[in-house]
Specification:
The strands form seven sheets. Strands 19-20-21-22-26 form a five-stranded antiparallel sheet. The protein has a four-stranded antiparallel sheet with strand order 3-4-5-6. A four-stranded antiparallel sheet has the order 7-8-9-10, with no helix packed on it. The chain has 37 helices and 26 strands. It is an alpha+beta fold and 1070 residues long.
Amino acid sequence: MPPVTTTSEKLLTPFSSFVPYNTTREPGLIVASGTGELRFWDSVDTGLAGAENFTSTQLDLVMGEYVTGLYRYENLIHIALTSNGRLFRVTITTLNGKSQLVPTLFGGGGTSMFYRATTALLPFLGAPTSIPGSSEVALALAFGQKRSRPGKDVWVLTQNQLQRWSLHVDSWEQLEQQVDVRQLIGAHMEQAVDIPGGMQRAARTQDFELLDVGVRSDGQVLVLFSYASTASTNFSSGSNTYTYCIARIGVKDPSRPTVLARDILVSDLNRDSRPATAPKMLLVDGGAAVLVQFGGAIVVASLGASFRQTLTLKSQWNRTLGFGLTKTDSQARLSEISAIIAANGVVTIKIDHEKIEDFHADTPTNQLKATFEQAIFYGAREENPFLFTVSPSVEGSFDQAACAVSNEIVNSSSVLLPAILDQRLQLSKRMELLRALILFINENGVGGHLSTSGKKLLSDGAEKIFMALTIWQHVNSNTESRAVLEQAVFSFMQRSSKTFGDDPVRMFFRTKVDEFQVLFRELYELVQPQASGSRRQQRGNLQDVNRIIILAFDSMLKHREETHALYGIPPDDRRASQWTNGQTIVDIVSNLFDATSSFLTEQTKDGHASGQKSDRMNPVVELQDQLKHLAEMTFWVFSERIAHLQSLANDTGDDRELHSLRERFINVRKQIAQSLVTHHFSNIAFGLAQKYTDFRLLAHLCNEPQALQALDGSATADEICEAYITQYQDKFAFELYQWYTDNGQLQKLLAQDQVHPELLHRYLELHPNPRVSWLHYLSAQDLPGAANALVATAQEDRRVVSKKVEFALAKLCNLAQATAVDERTSPAFEAAANVCTKELETISTYEELRREFLYIVEHFSGAEANRVDQPEVIASTNPRLREGTAIRSHFKNLTRQILQGKTLDFEDLIDVLTLKPQDEQLINGFWDAVAALNKSKNALQVGRVKSALATIWRRLLLNVDWRTVRPGQGMYDSDVSTALRGTIVFRLMLQMIGRPDCKHAWLRPQDALLIPTMQEISARFPQFSDAQAQALSQDYLEEQESLQDAIDSLGLEELYDATYREVELASEGR
């Protein structure tokens, strides 16, 4: 072999080319040194054996000229390029039976091919007659398609020019075309829109480097060139970051060559400074795709589409040595390229051209998926020379790509998975691949491109495989759990109409791990109450199912704890859905707890002792241990589900399901705690209450004697509560105080005034409870606070006796406070006193009514007063309350409440006062009704106030027999005046006239015709059916008709006016 030669400026490396003969003979080999020495071995075998049997010759180079390339034109013809732009035809001939090399200069003479062009080009091609300046380096050569004449075109790329030569069989060459390709590409880039900054600068200064040339099957010439990636650098600055492009040049019209398109192959690639590492281009599929060889990488790209693939070598010390097209299947459109890697030998690259052409909008995601697969399946192999990376700027959906790879591994559907018979090893391999996937994503700094839901899907897949591996190892070493697992898998197959061959369990663990939650449901079905088998078999099934479920959850929690940082998932982030926060898992785990608790309760009732807790062989002991695990799991799955629903509610605003589940969880927590206490696991119940900060449950447990008895130690409930108050302050104290309130232990609540007065005060401020607050305020000598609390308590109280005491105490508190600060004449005191006074007046009305009703019953029933229907007796004294009417039934109901010592709302009180028996000498009923209405009108709707006032006047007017009052035969004015003054209407008007609070309480007979509408009746009596409301409306209508008849037939309007005149006279003392 010729030695490597050097000059003072650069290292000169040799070039080589094979000489093919036929399929039965070893090819020959030509090697050209940088200085122009050519050696030819007739057979490669001879050269490899180290034999010296070669032919040698020397190219006619001038001083400083060196060889820049060697290309095979035909089997026996090669072309050598030089740094002076000269081309030599190297022909293999035979002389006297011995092969020899004959080099001849293109054009037959001259110092360079540029000089020869002046005589060869035709005038219409515009070729110069002379080329000034020094010769240009010939960089690369490519062969065009065969022409009609023998031979094919030769395209030569120099530092600035692109030339087309034709070779003739009679050993002479002719320059057919010459293009200033640098100027052509520069002009095209200047006209481009939205090009990178580096390209703008390169176009403006023409500071880019021409590298290689190729010719497509359609005749387009491809020129590979590069420029500095950033505008602040250039080739002379020594920048090592470059962008590489291909210009597609149309040359069908020799006089008007044009750049048809420009394709960016790769951006920001470091430049390799090692010898013989200049990028080289290989056209595939007629130039539809290209491979570009760099010193440390290989780029595969399609022209006219967005497909790009960069294969970078792992080691910076490794390098590519060469590549070539070794196999082409035109029908299947498949190409096979062999590349020689220094440290690895030959690597085969296969290209499917149909897939490249089908590249569309979602194909970048598929390409990203392919990168992930290459990285995790091949990246770690020692024999693999390539470093697989992914850039944050790459197109495509990281979520879709990563999750697609993960799903194929989880379901064993990836064609790249190795065939492993051992199920444990197969699961371990899948676990290893899933971990490699997230590690690859993190190492490339693209974890931020994954959404939270994407990260959780990846984590879900990995934890399911880890869970499957744990369960598989368990059932392999514990045969007792195999039966239920096999039954569950079989049920799963039947429900899903799937078949898994002769080994369904193994196939499930290979292909259906993603549906583990469905398998858990099948496992739960085996322990349902309706499940067949004896109680012993059911107990065994329950134990086996619990083992598998608990083992699965333990492994899941372990995986999450160990990998949440790896996947970048905050432990408290539950925005995205995971398989463990679904409602199905909540139901399964909580129902398993219930089933286990019920079974243990039955065992206790049947008298089966659990044995010593250390007796691990006792099945009841194992169920007790499982009960503790299931309790913790139930709390956990509920919390996960609630947190997930909360995140959804924050986004959608719909919290109905969240509210329902929270209410259910409150009940479930209490039931679980009670079950744990029953089975002597109070410490677990207390621990769960503290872990999940359920202070309401903790307060309940602290006041549960059975729970305290099971605890170790002799601390009392008060001591335990005091310890928790010290530890948790108001968080626990407030729930404890609420428990005292709900359970009627007000004495214990008020006892907190002695130990934690500030906490109790804050609790009562946040959770007003007037029934207790007034005592606390009295203890704290806060008289205004006590008065307000007493008023609030009395307003909610419906018992007349206690209501009277509460308002009286409130009035005394206000009086005591005003006396203490000498403010008995202040507006605030007067307002507070007036509230209590008015309420006490109303209470007096209830007391008078009750006494009156009792008197009526005793008067009409005598000794039978306690055994008769008292409301019926009272109703019967009013002839207007006819039997069977709705108004009579309503009055009897109200009367019964009065007799029971209860209060009514104001409208009901008005009904009682206006429907009770009336004595014309006493006007208490209607006057009290007007007073009650004045007190309540601000609390009722305007329409209902008007209806109530009309009801008072309507019934008042109907209580008078106006026929005996109106002037008649033999009656004088004095008689009429006396009759009018004897009516109940006169008595009421006399009480009302001149009173400011009665100014708006006057109604004329015509206005008293107003009766409640059906809408008002329904609003007042929501408990009434439509029929009941209609019946009551009918009674109101009859009252209205009776009053209308009195107005029309008796002249009630005139009688009303006459009565009012008598009231005016009486008020004046006449």
